[in-house]
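pasting for ref
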Amino acid sequence: MTSSSRFPFGLRKLPARYAGIVMPFFLSVLMTAMVSLISTLRSVGWSEDVLRMWPGAWGLSWLVAFPVLLLVLPLVRKLTARVVQS
């Protein structure tokens, strides 16, 4: 096995067939982190409560966002194909 098929610490990369799950996973983690942080800051302001409240807000939003992304991604790809030249 080549070094390009491994992560640091010797972990193997996932096969390409998992890209349809991995991409929405990372997208949902990053987007929900940012949106929930902004929303929490807007609700409680810059205080110690943010660090206490944000992880719960993030977790709940991610639990909703990841399955929704998996469901709507095929529709978004079709809509994008209609709007963008091939």
